[in-house]
Amino acid sequence: MLCKLLMAALVAAVVVAPARAAERVLLMPGVAYERQVEFTSHGPVAIHVLTAPRPGGLWRLQPVLSNGAVVARDRLSAMQRALGGQATVAGVSGDFFADDGRPEGIVLQDGVLAHQSHLDRSSIGIARDGALRVERVRTFGTWRGTQRRPLNLNEPPGANGAALYTPAWGPVAPAISGATTAVLPSLATIVPNTELSGTVSEVRTGAAASAAAAIPPGGALLVARGIAAQRLAAEVGTGGTITVRFVLSPDWSAVPDALGGGPVLVRDGRAVFRHSEVCSAPQLGRNPRAAGGQLRDGRIVLVAVDGQQRGYSVGMTSFELARTLVRLGAVTGAGLGAGPATTMAFEAKVLNRPAGGGETPVSNGLFVLYRGVYAAPPSEPVVSPNGDSFADSTDLTYKVVRPSRVTVTLVGPDRIARQLDVADKEPGTYRLVWGGTSAAGGAEPEGRWRFSVSAVDEQGQASVAERMFSVNKTLAGLTVTTAPGRASARFTLTRAARVTASIESQSGALIAVVARRSLAAGAHSISWNGRIGAGRAARGRYVFRIAAANAVGGMDVAAAFALAGSR
Predict the structure, then answer these.
(1) Is the pTM for the entire model greater than 0.85?
(2) Tag placement on the chain: N or C end, fewer CB within 10 Å?
(3) Which CATH number do you get for residue 379?
(4) Distance CA 64, CA 202 (A)
(5) Hey, CA dihedral for 12, 16, 22, 24, is it positive or negative?
(6) 550: how many CB neighbours lie within 10 A of its CB?
């Protein structure tokens, strides 16, 4: 049934409050993340948004297969971890896929076709100039012995069809009953619109052809069934030549990377309702789902919507996601997979809340890969080098993925640059520990600091990564003492500050605000009577947190304690 027929039954009037966005977080140079929440008549919806530069230079938008194979599945975080030495990576889960991991649509990587397109659904292509193309692309595959005949690519053959299994499928082709197999020990990688020929080393029939078989590295297996098997056996023998060709229509010769998905969601800046693509009701209905699009200025937007979690996020229909992309400024866009497997991650850390409480292994992902220098957030956003063991130093970490000439500097509130390192670095992660003192051992000024790393790689490409942190000695010496049903926090202020004292659970949930008051410099004590509202807190482990704010900035310290029952 056509998507447009199903969509008509799914779209209803929805009251939507304006999306509320959390602060945008810089994940890596040029790439930002934010979490938005919409309140609708169906319930709340959590939307996770990545924006990235137009593909080109140090940034690339690329489809990635799980474990590098068509028939494989893995967690999105594991896929990103495997790429960690090659790039800094952020992205979303990709196309719909079968139980064995086969994607439903096209996979085109670096100009090499790994899997054919879906006949009746849009594909997402990334052109060499960084433009995103969302089009209905068809793959026409043929093999020729004495004449051309239809051919699938890394997709099982029909009852009377043929399929070519390349190493992109995985190491072993599946068992197919009643098949005839031609072994091609050498065949070039599949480039669209290119005719390739290979010499047959063996033609297998009967049980030998029907069993699972190893795919020759650098070669392929041509597997045929029914009438196609008869033609293969009659036309090609050992030592014969088979010619294959896969043509993409329309012409995507300027598109080296593509991933299946669909349906098309945004065209010319407008949400698409009647797209006439073939999909199932779950692929269109209210679900967790992902999408990709391009903004008018060329930037890429990737979206993951949480769903199937009442009270937190109920998910979206395909058309609601189309309208969300338009609201975000997309001029073109398409859906990706939907359902519990929907995941967004950065550097192997999951950013959304997948349905089911954890990651579902997926077939593929659509990733932003950045190959410049990356600086991680400082381990302590506020350094307080006063010797009380609370944030006395911070770890400053950066990563390069290509041999690079690296310069590391710190710029303080006095706007003076302190050069920490200048050296040639091999690919890897590097860590510096800084404790708020100068090279001569003197105390550095309090206030805002900038950690900056610049790099020029072996290809001459320059990049810069920066992170901000603070030095603040306002608050020191926190200790917590307890009595039955009570806890007291003692601390010292080096200067006047507005102080907030609160009690948290061990997981960080706010339990009670004990005090908010302005205090002068000196020693202070704030007590908690063990009450939460009108009741008393249960005995157990808690955290006493003291936060102080003044002209220097804000900082907080915390200490765990055990609350005993009152007498």
Answers:
(1) yes
(2) C
(3) 2.60.40.1940
(4) 33
(5) positive
(6) 18
